[in-house]
Amino acid sequence: MQTLNLDLAERSYPIVVGAGALARADLIAGALAQPRAVIVSNETVAPLHLAKLKAPLTAAGIDTLDVILPDGEEYKDWPTLNRIFDALLANRCERSTTLIALGGGVIGDITGFAAACYQRGVPFIQAPTTLLAQVDSSVGGKTAINHPLGKNMIGAFHQPQLVLADTDTLATLPLREFRSGLAEVIKYGLIRDPAFLAWLEANTDALLAREPQALAEAIVRSCRNKAEVVAADERESGERALLNLGHTFGHAIETGCGYGVWLHGEAIAVGMLMAAELSRRLGWIDSAAVERIEALFVRCGLPVQGPALGVERYLELMAHDKKVQDGKLRLVLLRSAGEAVLSSAAPAADIAAAIAARCRAE
Amino acid sequence: MQTLNLDLAERSYPIVVGAGALARADLIAGALAQPRAVIVSNETVAPLHLAKLKAPLTAAGIDTLDVILPDGEEYKDWPTLNRIFDALLANRCERSTTLIALGGGVIGDITGFAAACYQRGVPFIQAPTTLLAQVDSSVGGKTAINHPLGKNMIGAFHQPQLVLADTDTLATLPLREFRSGLAEVIKYGLIRDPAFLAWLEANTDALLAREPQALAEAIVRSCRNKAEVVAADERESGERALLNLGHTFGHAIETGCGYGVWLHGEAIAVGMLMAAELSRRLGWIDSAAVERIEALFVRCGLPVQGPALGVERYLELMAHDKKVQDGKLRLVLLRSAGEAVLSSAAPAADIAAAIAARCRAE
Ligand SMILES: NC(=O)c1ccc[n+]([C@@H]2O[C@H](COP(=O)([O-])OP(=O)(O)OC[C@H]3O[C@@H](n4cnc5c(N)ncnc54)[C@H](O)[C@@H]3O)[C@@H](O)[C@H]2O)c1
Ligand SMILES: NC(=O)c1ccc[n+]([C@@H]2O[C@H](COP(=O)([O-])OP(=O)(O)OC[C@H]3O[C@@H](n4cnc5c(N)ncnc54)[C@H](O)[C@@H]3O)[C@@H](O)[C@H]2O)c1
Ligand SMILES: [Zn+2]
Ligand SMILES: [Zn+2]
């Protein structure tokens, strides 16, 4: 088990990574304000992993209540959020009741937002069970639900008390979800950690075989990158925006095809290639760098071409993205494979051309 | 025009009180991050006061969009909140778009919560138009909507950039609403400002006549009290809870009778008398003190007896209140008429007796 710390003064918290982390009732108990917790999970994850979390808590004298939600991004919405509030209120949960999110990014985001809003804020713990959630969404305090007009439009910054990333849970993760998580792992290499990028290229096979050592290493190095960025810029006023490499393009794909058709990691893999292609057009990186990134995605089984939405539709969807400031689209681009920058320098024609180069023809 | 400051380090903001404050487009413009604002108001307030706010902004080159909601506490709910989000998204409002709440506490609370959640937080300005909102809800950053199982159960702490309390707007306020606001004004005297309590007793007639000087004085002294308390305890971990004098009882009345039957100030007036009666039973204040408070409420036209819900129902509703910690009810009680304390010392039998003494028989 390895522990790293997200350093945010009085909001600092530990990130515990390793096999069996879910069973660490001692760590959870230490983070609770009262011997009671509400576990929020979904219909897929609960049968597979809930007992591993719940039994040790019960044995430790902690009273737990489960809220099991339906599974899917389409349930990251207000009616489902309200089911959490209903359960909390029906069970008279108080300001000191802690919520525990057991699941992927959807469960983490909706549970975190419920914790942010219930009685104006209660504590919560992240117990991520997808690779994506372990390396990205569970760390950093961004919480949200979707709105019919846009993903993650309603949310809050609310930091967890503790993150427990149990690598054992990844054994049951569907291959496509696992690959999708790898896209976020690779992202850290691309934006700020060239040594990690090289390590990933050298260890792709071990990762795809889900070798425990390799997994733990990839998760810890990803979380360390994310923790450093968030510690420097909790509210995304600067550096944190670099974590959105590929996301403005990727969100357009996710929204344009309807939630759930493309996985988040698949969409941002293509989005990162669009950003790379745009960076190449600006003369910042060469074709070899773009091909190197593409090759890694291909080996990971990730898509390297977007859906045929039409360039106009991509641009329209991107204009709805939060990364718009004063009407101008700010994009994360690459200075090299290992260094990202935030820029509004790209001419509209180049943005359109980069999209066209990386999506299927209509 | 008088200005006081709520001192919260980087979240500090000015509270501007006086006739014509709504027209201070200069102050608003200084608080905006872009020349654009979304005004949220309701169907009652907009026809009366929107133009006074909007015309000077338009003249100052600030683009405004109005979102006019239906009027009533029953609309402080998710579907109505969603109408704000719909408008913001349909108009592609960005992270730097400022919301302005023009109305009473309902509009202030729902708009503040919309600002807290939209894209994980945008700036907002409070332009309160009821006495209650000017002396209480617009100051301090508490925002919320109601849930069918409890008032203000879903919310956030989100401080405004600026509060503009225009005393002119109170001229159109229905008498019952005005009186209700006086209950919150008197509350400040009771919990921490005996000199202000004496001033209120000496100036009741001038206040009821809505004399501009008296009004401004009462609002400024109220806001100063609230600002001091909030500055010392933004997140309500201690002293701020004293602002809830009468509120646990009062919320039971509001919920028990259905939102809107009792006004908030009416309910907390009775609640404050229940707290006073309970304090008397604990031997902390004498009957004369209780009668003094009752006399002031009577002169202000406020109720001094609660509805006949039955003591059991009061207790049940109070157990749902946020002021429960580890299953024990913490109440704000009076050490004297001018000093409140938070206490869980009251025996259940005394709580029941205090309620029974101050509510109509079933
Ligand atoms: N808050 C943030 O900072 C942040 C960052 C990135 C993504 N996100 C959000 O995260 C979400 C995507 O997260 P995700 O990719 O984890 O999706 P997800 O939560 O939908 O999980 C993917 C699927 O895997 C299932 N699953 C989860 N754990 C499993 C396990 N151990 N075994 C078998 N099946 C399992 C889930 O039930 C689901 O069907 C999106 O809503 C995205 O917006 C948030
Ligand atoms: N956030 C906080 O700290 C805090 C504190 C106290 C109360 N509150 C909340 O505030 C709400 C009560 O606020 P309220 O008493 O202002 O109620 P309100 O907002 O419902 O206003 C009362 C009525 O007066 C009307 N009105 C408002 N201004 C007017 C004007 N100038 N002329 C004529 N009519 C006018 C309104 O349309 C409404 O019909 C409750 O929801 C309560 O929970 C919040
Ligand atoms: Zn992502
Ligand atoms: Zn109140």
TrEMBL record, chains A, B:
It is an enzyme of class 4 (lyase). Its EC number is 4.2.3.4. Its cofactor is NAD(+); Co(2+); Zn(2+). It catalyses: 7-phospho-2-dehydro-3-deoxy-D-arabino-heptonate = 3-dehydroquinate + phosphate. NAD(+) binds at residues 71-76, 105-109, 129-130, 142, 151, 169-172. GO terms for molecular function: 3-dehydroquinate synthase activity; metal ion binding; nucleotide binding. HAMAP family: DHQ_synthase. This is 3-dehydroquinate synthase. It comes from Rhodocyclus tenuis. The gene is aroB.
